[in-house]
Each structure stands twice: as structure tokens, then as C-alpha cells.
Design brief:
The protein has helices spanning about 15-25, 40-55, 95-110, 125-135, 145-160, 195-200, 200-210, 215-220, 230-245, 290-310, and strands spanning about 1-10, 30-35, 60-65, 75-80, 115-120, 140-145, 170, 175, 180-185, 190, 195, 250-255, 265-275, 275-280. The chain is α/β, with parallel strands linked by helices. The protein folds into two domains: about 1-145, NAD(P)-binding Rossmann-like Domain (Rossmann fold, 3-Layer(aba) Sandwich), CATH 3.40.50.720; about 145-310, L-2-Hydroxyisocaproate Dehydrogenase, Chain A, domain 2. The protein has a six-stranded parallel beta sheet with strand order 3-2-1-4-5-6, sandwiched between helices. Strands 7-10-11 form a three-stranded antiparallel beta sheet. A hairpin with a 2-residue loop joins strand 10 (about 190) and strand 11 (about 195). The radius of gyration is 19 Å and the shape is globular. Bound molecules: nicotinamide-adenine-dinucleotide. The site of nicotinamide-adenine-dinucleotide has 33 residues, from helix 1 and helix 3.
Length: about 325
């Protein structure tokens, strides 16, 4: 169990659901919520604390008034930003959310120098880079959430097409969080078999397409805002593996220094999580086609990095 976990954007959909689920699962003694909507943070904190009282849980969830209140937090989860609307692409969010991320991590670096950062805000991979740039934190302490969510969508779509929700499926979706994601069916496991052997080629095509559309489908249903139950659950899964490390491999957005032939960007790769954050990146042997697809997936991230550099939001120092 953590002592103090902060959620920046705690008044929003994803942030408040992380706080609720985290409190219900007893992951921290204290969840501290911060955002530009102070009153809603206070309301969410009180509401969840009252829910915790129903189950007699020893947890406090509080809305905070300033970054100083977050002093000494062990984990800071950043969900602050603007959610994608049906008209918006992830790229539209880029410049807006990069400035927000800069402001947040500069404050966190001041008050919680030892914290582990879990980034959720979109566009995810490049927001992680902005967080690294402006916090100055080491690479193991900055982890982006996306692969766990995309993997869950792949699992859901596979169960749906097989019409069997009793199957145990572990899914791995590497690459950028976006349309260029790389669902790695060969390495996905369905009741001990490779998912590539369980699904027909046509089924594989459908499952991959539906996984890629997973977020957009929800945006279209909600009309305002994007998914939050599954994204919040994905963050909780990461927190649980940080508290209790296991052999389980998760795909998270991590900083690369040569792994998978990637350099100087954050991208979704399989990792082992532990108390220090990213314990190590797992190098799965990829075939030529998969390597090429991963390389293509990184192109979009590199373009976003260029846009940020051209707008003075990222300097060469990373
Ligand atoms: N990585 C993923 O897989 C994934 C999944 C879902 C959502 N997201 C992203 O997560 C982010 C949050 O989504 P949401 O649905 O919770 O949105 P939301 O609008 O409900 O919440 C956003 C929160 O950010 C806060 N905020 C805005 N500017 C701020 C600032 N300068 N400082 C502090 N707080 C600030 C708002 O007050 C609000 O609480 C979005 O960027 C969304 O695209 C990512």
C-alpha cells in the first residue's frame, strides 16, 4: 500500500475513477486530488471518502488547494488535460496539453522530487516526453498508460468474436497510442495458445480493427468526453504491479535508449514494473514485418515531437 498518491486532474472522469477504484482496492492510505477545478476535487474527495466509509476502508480522499499539499507523494498520476471530442484528433490536443503538462511537472518536481509519474493525458507518448523534459526525472520514474488499455480492448474484442467470455486472454499491443498501434497477436495468449492460431485470418483482421476503434466508439457514444472506466482500471493495474511486482508483463509507454531500435522517444513496449517504476524493458524477438510496423508506429510520435520542438515546447535537451 502507498502512503500518498496524487491525481492531477482528479476532478475529471479518468482521475476521479482512478481515485474511486484505488480507494476501493485499498491501494493507498491517502489519495490527493488536484486540478484547476478545486471545488469539484473537494466534492469528489468527499464523495469517495463517504463511499469508503460504507465498506469501513482506512482511506482518505481529499481535494487539495495547492501543489504544496502534494509534498512527498510517492506516485503522481497525471490525467489533466482536454479530453478528445468526436471532432478532435489526438494531434489537436498536442499543443494545448503539452503546456498543461509542462506546468504540472515543473510543480511536481518542486514538491515531490522522488515521485513516480504515471502519465495518462493525450497524446500519450509525447506527453510522457514532455513530462521527462520538464521534470528532469529519471526514465524509470515516468510511465505512460496506454498499452494496458489497448491490450484490454484486444482481449475484449477477441472474447466477443469467439463468443466466449470464459477464455483467459493476455493481449499485447505495442507502439504508439493511436491508430498506428501494433497489436501483436502472435504473442497474445488465449488459454495457453497463441491468439494468432486461435483466430482465423478474417477474425484477426476484425479484432485488430475493432481494437483500434475501441476508444473512438466510446467517444461517439458519449458524445462528450472519452472513455474512463477502462482507462482508470488500467492505471489501477499498473499501481498494483508497482506495489506487488510479479512476472507479469505489461505494455506501457517508456523512454527508449536503443531498445527495439528506438531512441529518445516514449513508445508502448512490454515491461516489468516494480517499486522503482520501470524495472526493465522486455525485448520480444520481432520478425521483419513486426519490426517494420513498430518503426512506422513511431513515425507519428516523432512528428509530434517535431511539432513541439517547432513551437518551442521541447528543446534539444531531453
Ligand atoms: N492514455 C490513455 O489511454 C487515455 C485514455 C483515456 C483518456 N486519456 C486522456 O486523459 C486525459 C483526461 O481525460 P478525462 O476524460 O478525465 O478528461 P476530463 O476533462 O474529465 O478531466 C480533465 C481534468 O484535467 C483538469 N485540468 C485541466 N487543466 C489543468 C491544469 N492546468 N492543471 C491541473 N488540472 C487541469 C480538469 O480540471 C479536469 O479535472 C485526456 O487528455 C484524455 O485524452 C488518455
Amino acid at each position: 500500500m502507498f502512503d500518498k498518491v496524487a491525481i492531477i486532474g482528479g476532478s475529471g472522469n479518468v482521475g476521479s475513477h482512478i481515485a474511486f477504484l484505488g480507494a476501493m482496492r485499498g491501494l493507498a492510505r491517502e489519495f490527493l486530488l488536484f486540478s484547476i477545478d478545486l471545488f469539484r476535487c473537494k466534492g469528489v474527495g468527499l464523495d469517495i471518502s463517504q463511499a469508503a466509509a460504507i465498506f469501513d476502508l482506512p482511506v482518505s480522499v481529499k481535494g487539495c488547494e495547492s501543489y504544496e499539499d502534494l509534498s512527498g507523494c510517492e506516485v503522481v498520476i497525471i490525467t489533466a488535460g482536454f479530453p478528445r471530442t468526436p471532432q478532435m484528433s489526438r494531434n489537436d490536443l498536442l499543443l494545448k496539453n503539452a503546456s498543461i503538462m509542462q506546468e504540472i511537472v515543473e510543480n511536481i518536481a518542486r514538491v515531490a522530487q522522488e515521485a513516480l509519474l504515471i502519465i495518462v493525458s493525450n497524446p500519450l507518448d509525447v506527453m510522457c516526453l514532455v513530462a521527462k523534459h520538464y521534470s528532469g526525472f529519471p526514465k524509470n520514474r515516468i510511465i505512460g498508460m496506454a498499452g494496458v488499455l489497448d491490450g484490454a480492448r484486444l482481449t475484449y474484442e477477441s472474447k466477443t468474436i469467439l463468443n466466449d467470455f470464459t477464455k483467459h486472454i493476455e493481449s499485447y499491443v505495442l507502439g504508439a497510442h493511436g491508430d498506428d498501434m501494433l497489436p501483436l497477436l502472435r504473442y497474445c495468449v488465449c488459454n495457453g495458445k497463441s491468439l494468432a492460431d486461435v483466430l482465423s485470418p478474417k477474425q484477426q483482421e476484425i479484432v485488430v480493427q475493432e481494437t483500434k476503434n475501441g476508444g473512438a466508439k466510446i467517444v461517439n457514444y458519449y458524445q462528450q468526453g472519452s472513455a474512463y472506466f477502462a482507462p482508470a482500471s488500467a492505471v489501477i493495474k499498473m499501481l498494483e504491479l508497482i506495489i506487488t511486482p510479479s512476472e507479469e508483463m505489461l505494455v506501457c509507454s517508456v523512454y527508449t535508449e536503443g531498445e527495439y531500435d528506438m531512441e529518445g522517444i516514449f513508445i508502448g513496449l512490454p515491461i516489468k514494473l516494480g517499486k522503482k517504476g520501470v524495472e526493465h524493458i522486455v525485448e520480444l524477438p520481432l520478425n521483419e514485418q513486426e519490426r517494420e510496423m513498430l518503426k512506422n508506429s513511431a513515425q507519428g510520435i516523432k512528428k509530434q515531437v517535431e511539432i513541439l520542438k517547432n513551437n518551442g515546447l521541447l528543446k534539444e535537451r531531453i
